[in-house]
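Message: Just now I want nothing more than another pair of eyes on a protein record. I am handing you a single protein, as its sequence and its fold in token form. As I understand it, each token names a local backbone shape. Take your time, and here it is.
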Amino acid sequence: MAIQVDNGLNDLTDISQPASHTMPPRAPLRMRVQDLSASPEAPTAPTQGLARTTAWRVALFLPALIGTGLLVSAMYGWLSETGMTHLEWVLLALIGMTFVWVSLSVSTVGVAVAGLLARETADRRSPRDVTPMDVALLVPIYNEVPSDVFGNAAAMLDDLARRSSRHRYTLFILSDTRDAQIAADELRAYEDLTAQAPEGFAVHYRRRAMNTDKKVGNLMDWITGWGAAHEAMVVLDADSLMTGRAIDRMADELSVNPNTGLIQTFPMLIGARTVFARLQQFSNIAYGWLLAEGLAKWARTEANYWGHNAIIRTRAFAESAGLPYLQGRHGKTELILSHDFVEAGLLRRAGWQVRFLPRVAGSFEETPGTLIDYVLRDQRWCRGNLQHLRLLRTKGLHPVSRYHLFHGAMAYLLSPAWFVLLVIWALLGVDPETNVVRYFNEANPLFPDWPPEMSHIDSAVFLIIMYAMLLTPKLVGAGIIALHPKATRVYGGRAAFLTAFLVEILLSIAYAPILMIQQTRAVLRALLGQSDAWAAQCRHAQSYPLSTLIRFHWAETLLGLVLLTGLATGMVSLWLIPIVASLCLAVPLSALSGWTLPQGLPRGLLMHCPQTIREPAIVGRARSERRRLRNLLDAPNVPAE
């Protein structure tokens, strides 16, 4: 796609000419590139329900800040007994930084529980004032499996057709595919979908000649080409799946509230067959809902956008969310990669409400099936999230939007912080004689003179506190479910649920150190300007050969063996055994992550959840459509005589 910048208006106009036989008549909508260094023309609108929203935000941040302050103060008291050095200040800062973010997760759960007890019904809206809208369903794809994409699309259209909706829906498959064979299969799948589509639902397909600016450019191409014909757009990922009721609910909500620019749902994970995928799915469904409730309570009209399973007011997006390029290294321009957070902030900056509705049921997505696939996806996100730090200076952003950007970056920066703390724990040893840092202090006064009790405090008390805080959201979520018989029934019973909960906790603890090392490497690569080619996400679990596993996890294994040597010689505290074991076993744990769970196992070991015990109807329909399309595409393409 070629981009032309109007020097007078600073607007983006698509001047490409994609194949038109699969697209409707053009309805161009100009998309304005935002100047991040200047305040917006329209100041940010006031927060809706300011007094109540402020109360929820105080309930979120105040306990976390107080708890962190108390811990840092106590640690400072121990460290300052012999005077503070630069390294001790670094240690104190790392403890505070890691603890405050863990505390915020606990506070979010507290806000959610308080909101549930208050029985707030903020999601309810009367449908009587719903105005019919033309809504576009957008599915941007890049070298995806065509049968999966079009199978999901067929299931969603079929589900929408079963409803008497006030709105008019049009489906657009927006392809950036580079592979010629996949593109040919996409076209065959599109032709099948148009033949099978319910009456009254138009289906269109467009493949760009050049995939300029990746997903951002793909969506912008549609907006500047056809956006004016649609009041709203539902943005979906290649693996997104939404019920007709969920899509209709989002459209109704957008229609009755003219000040809302974006509504984000809470996607539930589906399709998990492997150990690692099922681990994520169980966690998402069993505990994720609680964190989602807390986020909705305090974010209110300053919520965030996750790039998919959301509805957006088209003109609001075009007028206020056009992304500029960033100034990169050596004078080169950079595309804003994690664009969704930024687009949400720009919408709110222009006065539009950005809302999060976690109770919209029927919003689904898939998850990587193996640890390696998860890490590869994470690496792509890391560089984009770290870009957010450079966007914090954007003029006119709402403070909560800035927090979302900062939080996105901190999600990755915490891993290097944890890694440095791990190194310090290892150097502290088990007593003054094995304290490596203290040993070097005798020869170099620049190193700190650690208090003798720091070996035990840092390696034991602090580690226990951190583990307790990290597990609190899961313990609260599991406790709420375990105390309600109706809730445990959809997990296969209380015994099955508690067994699954224990398995999930153990596996999460096992995989956490590996992910810490991998995210640390991703952060270092991003800071050094190293980037990987834009590759399609692997959405189907695959078994990796041993050579690949070793090559991928050599750093964790090596670090684990070093720490294991320290344990064997008495130099490293026994409190680090869980971390050492995880790192040493990185290769077999990674192999285990891709193991397909046999259905003969007990329900607890399978980590069953409502979506696996009683599969949603649309998920079954999508799987059936995928299978049908796969058979169709695998058959020889014999032209008709």
